[in-house]
Amino acid sequence: SCRKLKKKRHNLSQLELHLFFTKASVRLFIHKVTAPLHPKVDVSHPHILYSYIPFVVLQLLYEEWASYSVFYKYQPIGLIRKYFGEKVGLYFAWLGVYTQMLIPAAIVGVIVFLYGCATVDENIPSMEICDPRNNVTMCPLCDQACSYWKLVTACGTARASHLFDNPATVFFSIFMALWAVLFMEHWKRRQMRLNYIWDLTGFGEEEEVSVRNVKKNKASPDHSHICLFYLYVFKYNHVLAPTQSLDEKVKLTCSDRLPAYMTTVVMMCLMISVTFAIVFGVILYRISIKAALHMSSYPAARSNIRATVKTTAAIINLIIIIIMDEIYAAIARWLTTLEVPKTDKSFEQRLIFKTFILKFVNAFTPIVYLAFFRGRLVGRPGKYLYVVGSYRMEECAHSGCLMELCIQLCITMLGKQLIQNNLFEIGIPKIKKLLRQRKSEMDTKQEEELNKTLRRHEKDHFLGPFIGLNPEYMEMIIQFGMVTLFVASFPLAPLFALLNNIIEIRLDAKKFVTELRRPIAAKAKDIGIWYNLLRGLSKVAVIVNAFVISFTSDFIPRLVYQYTYSPDGTLHGFTNHTLAFFNVSDFQPGTDPLEPMHLGYKVDMCRYKDYREPPWSTTPYDFSKEFWAILAARLAFVIVFQNVVMLMSDFVDWLIPDIPKDISLQMHKEKILMVELFMKEEQGKRLTMRERNTPQQPRSRPNSHTNCV
Amino acid sequence: SCRKLKKKRHNLSQLELHLFFTKASVRLFIHKVTAPLHPKVDVSHPHILYSYIPFVVLQLLYEEWASYSVFYKYQPIGLIRKYFGEKVGLYFAWLGVYTQMLIPAAIVGVIVFLYGCATVDENIPSMEICDPRNNVTMCPLCDQACSYWKLVTACGTARASHLFDNPATVFFSIFMALWAVLFMEHWKRRQMRLNYIWDLTGFGEEEEVSVRNVKKNKASPDHSHICLFYLYVFKYNHVLAPTQSLDEKVKLTCSDRLPAYMTTVVMMCLMISVTFAIVFGVILYRISIKAALHMSSYPAARSNIRATVKTTAAIINLIIIIIMDEIYAAIARWLTTLEVPKTDKSFEQRLIFKTFILKFVNAFTPIVYLAFFRGRLVGRPGKYLYVVGSYRMEECAHSGCLMELCIQLCITMLGKQLIQNNLFEIGIPKIKKLLRQRKSEMDTKQEEELNKTLRRHEKDHFLGPFIGLNPEYMEMIIQFGMVTLFVASFPLAPLFALLNNIIEIRLDAKKFVTELRRPIAAKAKDIGIWYNLLRGLSKVAVIVNAFVISFTSDFIPRLVYQYTYSPDGTLHGFTNHTLAFFNVSDFQPGTDPLEPMHLGYKVDMCRYKDYREPPWSTTPYDFSKEFWAILAARLAFVIVFQNVVMLMSDFVDWLIPDIPKDISLQMHKEKILMVELFMKEEQGKRLTMRERNTPQQPRSRPNSHTNCV
After folding, report:
1. Which stretches are transmembrane (chains A, B) (predicted)?
2. C-alpha dihedral over A44, A45, A46, A51, to 10 degrees?
3. What is the mean pLDDT of chain B?
């Protein structure tokens, strides 16, 4: 009857196992690996043979997966899943797909960057800035201490910022938006395929089901289920110790939960505001240090003020981010336990959600500030905006904040990855391990000889516990954010991500194989909430990039100038067009430079980068018509960009089927099989019934009639 | 073994049948309905009893569904599905949900409209316009024929346009955007429920499956399947006559299809351009007729020029739309047959897609023109934009084009619905029926007495054939577009739609029950491509409404004026602020009015609605700073509106689960049952196996080991 079918489906997973281990290969590995430990293994008996598979798998993983020498190879996902369970398998599969997809992105990114390098000498604006002939006197960058300066001195920055602020970046950010969609689709398909291969297509909320009905017939020899059940309960106790007792109670009412939720909301807001405060602190640091350096009389210090300040500030940011990350993680966990979620699934989801928000805000606040607020709140000469006393808000380098943004992103990405990888993912576990060994009071000699006698799982006790995949995922998601959100300002981000991930995969592999105890195999059909987070990020990325291009970069002003104001359709005169005039006599008392003759001649008009009316107009220093026109153009660009990209993404999404053709065909075939089986049996049943009792017979007709009359 | 389970699932559909017809009720109806025809029915025998169910169902439908008297009742979807099949059932279910969801929308819309009516007297701009004290001399509306006019004369329009151009409409369009999402979600859930009740949850591409495996064992007494199979094939022949032969051939190559696709693309473009041409023609009509009327010396004609022109133009548009609709439908069908799709599914999809594009463009081009282009391309006094010779592009009434847009929408919706419903859906079928009867040469008397003797299905031959649901769906989708796309400009749209649909449901019901032959029952799991079209429309609606509010209405200019330019934070002086000055001496020769003294005094400065520099500025008649500032504000509003609404929609979408709680629970339970059954049998099998052959035994362990070690 149905047995054939069920058997087929049941054996699917075993089948895969057999793919990896023909008896021969197992025997081979036993001789190679475990023979030394247990010399007289009777490999002839299949039962004993199979009992060694785990060791063999581990060995295989160690050689074929957890070493840098094979970084160019695909991961043995099947084996990973076999040994660590579906959840871990899916993580590494996802990481693999992500890394793979990063390759094209990185290549295009590098090309874009190279294009920037190639065209830096044809770039008219920077040429104009660097041309000493048109000597433009700029207004001082700080009160009193600083004096007027020549625009030529900003030549370096101007040239550098062209590398990241050129038309190619527009194309690149569109490309990356589509890339993100393609990545999603690609992963969906891969997941579907894995689900099919791993025989999870039927597996939904049945985790609980299989558990429950095993509870009933524990006697059944279906080990896999019981095993799953034990794992499940154990994991549950493990993660949810505080809430365990509550599970027997009646469902909690809203009023019970209210205080917890209140605490959560309040704490979250508090944490976020703390982040903002920190960022603001860094800004203050930057302002004050800059002022101080300006006052210092060493020309050496003055010369590379900007660079120094930027770099130090970025590093400080980085350190703070890394420290706060750990703190926030702890807080999120604490808050979630307060909420007492019912199942561990919801626990995990809530935890992830909180952690994500906190870490995301923590990682991106400084970047967002740099991208969108820095230099916008400056005010104008003679009427600057002052914060906490007499600190003037910092303004950007002459050619936009893009350069700063780049440095920030670069340092954050590289630093975060390097430090977190090396320090937290290699260092800490090693130290922990050492401590653990120290605890078990025995000198190395004894230990060694014990090692010989110890069984594998006994040795494993010395390894660190498995603390779940969420940190790994979180790290990757934040990285994905870096890659997609501000890619318009930093086309090399994908490259960095790629390099990091190539290491990351093997690093995690090593950790899983050698550093940590074997995790309890957990079944999972997909990567759960992480997928939604990715999707959300890739949606936000579109609008963020639109704003970066139109507001942070000078792309739009250049276009507008070239096609409306320029006398000869080129960018000649653009620099002059972007500079407003300021009459030095309009300085507020006490803010004018102490040494006005610094440049060697009397200055009565200085320039500053803004679109404002000149002093001699009827409304001096008001925003000029150009300002509003360009603002309109910028906003228009955002609208067009966002909608075009969204349309394209939707189109791509619609174009690619979620289920690979071959898989869907396979499933279809199986369904046919199922239906046929059912029908055959039905038929058989009918016949037997008819023989037994005739009155039953007409019962089969009516529905046929109602359909066919 | 699995039988119990399968039986349960099989009987589900029969179960529902029994819900409707206990033997008693059937007997009752037989006596009431069919007894007269066949007096001596042996109702005791269940077989004969059931053979009457179709008639009973039809009778039930006729009384409980296809009459206006029950318009307030829910439709008997179960019965409909029973008699007409799932596809028709789903259509009416969808129509029901849509109509139901329209009720709140209509209510809110009416409230918004009433708010407009209530606040029309507090509306400062219209008060200023209507105030005769500030007598503003406006520039002539056409060359020569027209003369200067007083702004006061535009009082009526100003007051009227406030009804549709007030802050409430902003709220309403946000509301409608969310409404659309809610509607989608609600329908998804309803569909899920129906799928479960109708036992379609397993039904995917298996339509072919069930067919195929019935082919093999035709002998099987499972009538329902065979029946489905016949229906299927018949329908296939019916719809796909031209392509039928090709199905046996090998798959067509790209090169074979290329010409067809080329033709399609070309024709589509052609058709669309034809639509544009027609709209442009109507515009020309409007311009010329206006000029002509202006020249006419009858004061009566002059007085209500605008109204006349608007209305006639709208009606012409309407008629053209309705005629073109029919033509386009034919063309789309022809093009699709050219493409020779493989299955009838793809045929239908392609047809729908083409028809949708053509009809959509046809229906919305005039509206889009009115909303976004009318009055934008006018030019300015002294430098007007002229089309085809000396026709000046038409400009809007003083207070925006919103009023015209409203009238257009109103007439289109009402007219389209009334005409299409009454003429095409009632008239045509009746006429067809008459003709068909005429064809069968027999005078009425003979026919009547034949009627007595004729069996039901014989009589049905005189009814019209069933031509599919696509026209019905299409009509509804276009209506949905009207309701969502331009709701910002016409809050009464949902009300009209609601009223129309209440009639529509019963109209279609009547048609299906009395006018048409019983359609061949077709299985369907969802409403297919229509859902995607709806989704697409509701996405487009957000951006369209954003543009309507910010560009077509005066909402943004009012805000900007109130919070930036206004001396006293109110709207006083807004009207004056929106009017630019024009020096009559700057008229192009031959365009100045023939009778300049029309108003009784010499005019040297006239006003026109635009943000331009006054004649005495350094750059006369250029766009002023206000223009750019307001443009920026408008664009900013679009960005904010779009993203906020999209965010809210996504949130709502995420908030509401696609599968109703109870249904998912039910399915879960069934899965448990399934798993338990499988396990029991497995267990039994294992035991028997163990008894038979012991070497087999260990085969069951390994996968347990690999999971549990």
Report:
1. 91-115, 168-184, 265-287, 307-331, 351-372, 476-499
2. -110
3. 76
Query: Does A108 score more than 90 pLDDT?
Result: yes
Would you state the structure tokens that stand for residue B144, as one six-digit string? 């020569």
Q: Which residue has the higher pLDDT, B194 or B447?
A: B194
Closest residue of chain B to A682, computed from CA coordinates: B3
| Closest to B607 (Cα-Cα) out of B380, B386, B427, B374 | B380
Q: Read out DSSP for B618-670? A: SSTTSBPHHHHHHHHHHHHHHHHHHHHHHHHHHHHHHHS-SS-HHHHHHHHHH
Half-sphere exposure of B183 (CA within 13 A, CB side): 28
Query: In terms of CA atoms, which chain A residue is nearest residue B4?
Result: A682
- Cα B623 to Cα A566, A567, B443, B551, B676: the distances in Å are 18, 19, 77, 17, 77
- Residue B14, chain A, CB below 8 Å: the answer is yes
Residue tagged 């591409």 (tokens)? B205
Q: Exposed e or buried b for every residue in B220-237, given b needs 16+ CB within 10 A?
A: bebbbbbbbbebbeebbe
Report how far residue B92's alpha carbon sits from residue B434's, in angstroms, rounded to the nearest whole number. Answer: 28
The residue with greater pLDDT, A704 or B446, is B446
Most confidently modeled range among A85-99, A216-230, B328-342: A85-99
Decide if A51 touches B, using CB distance below 8 A. Answer: yes
All residues of chain B having their beta carbon less than 8 Å from the beta carbon of residue A628 are 625, 628-629, 631-632
**Cβ-defined contact of B705 to A206 (cutoff 8 Å):** no
Contact (Cβ atoms closer than 8 angstroms) between residue B62 and residue B512: no
Label residue B45 by pLDDT band (50, 70, 90): low
Say if CB B97 and CB B534 are below 8 A apart: no
Q: What values do phi and psi take at A582, rounded to 5?
A: -140, 130
Instruction: Tell me the C-alpha distance between A226 and A211, whole Å.
Output: 7
Task: Write down the pTM of the prediction.
Answer: 0.81
Q: Tell me the C-alpha to C-alpha distance, in Å, between residue A683 and each of A569, A686, A692.
A: 83, 5, 14
Which among B524, B525, B557, B538 is positioned nearest to B626, based on CA atoms?
A: B557
**Residue A235, amino acid:** K
Q: Enter the tokens of residue A556.
A: 């739009």
Given a contact cutoff of 8 angstroms between Cβ atoms, the answer to whether B383 and B621 are in contact is yes
What is the value of ipTM here, to two decimals?
A: 0.80
Please indicate whether, in this complex, the C-beta atoms of B682 and A47 are within 8 angstroms of each other: no
B255 to each of A260, A669, B260, B268, B579, how far by Cα in Å?
66, 31, 10, 20, 61
Tokens of A366: 């400084």
Name the β-bridge partners of B150: B137
Question: Are A683 and B220 inside 8 Å of each other by CB?
Answer: yes
Cβ B181 vs Cβ B570: under 8 Å: no
* Eight-state DSSP code of residue A463: S
* Section B181-202 average pLDDT: 85
CA distance A304 to A307: 5
- Which residue of B4, B21, B707 is the best one to mutate when testing the A interface, meaning the one whose CB has the most A CBs within 10 A? B707
d(CA B424, CA A123): 65
Which chain A residues have a beta carbon less than 8 Å from that of B205?
668
Question: B493-510 vs B470-485: helix axis angle to the nearest 10?
Answer: 170
Closest CA in chain A for residue B672: A209
Cα dihedral across residues B337, B341, B343, B348: positive or negative: negative
Amino acid identity, position B56: V
What count of other Cβ atoms lies within 10 Å of the Cβ of residue A162?
A: 23
Task: Output the DSSP codes for A530-596.
Answer: HHHHHHHHHHHHHHHHHHIIIIISSHHHHHHIIIII-TTSSSTTHHHHHEEEEEGGGSPTTTS-S-G
Q: Is the pLDDT of residue B368 over 50?
A: yes
Min distance B486 CA to chain A CA atoms (Å): 19
* DSSP secondary structure of A640-651: HHHHHHHHHHHH
